[in-house]
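Sequence decides. Consider this:

===
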Amino acid sequence: MTTLPTSPAPATLREPAISRLLFGDPRLAPLWLILRVYVGYEWLIAGWGKITNPAGVWVGEKAGTAVSGFLTGALAKTGGDHPDVQGWYGWFLQHVALPNAAAFSYLVAYGEVLVGVALIVGLFTGIAAFFGGVMNASYLLAGTVSTNPLLFILATWLVLGWRVAGWWGLDRWVLARFGVSEHPAAAPAELASPRRPGDAVR
């Protein structure tokens, strides 16, 4: 009788204790709250300023005006031996973003507000931080520094710590609905009534 070869058990990688402490321990939730609200506030005021701009160059009749000026300035940085804006990104700005400046204007303005609100209330924190980081990277690729390096670093940390970053926020309840974390108001039955020696195993 031929014995079929058994496949080896899949390898598992253990999470280091320092990683569990930093990115998965609710005791550090207050620290993550400070980082999350700071980044969210920066995005919220930036986006709100664009939406409420009285000239309407971001949202309104003149939507796209500000974006067109920004993109034109970025394209001017594509020349030289060591350009601030790489050629491939310059191609994207010229052939994709600039012809659709009005759409990108709305996308940026409302995207910044949505990311800001989501981070402040702690709703889908990891996803919000990811899209915030994408916007930071877009600004950096376009040759704009400002606060983008700092916010990009903090956004990366928030993505890594998504399990606990929204613990003091709506994620504490929302993520439990998706089975990502335990609902704070209900402990598992196994923890509520620990098994005693001699109990039947089910």
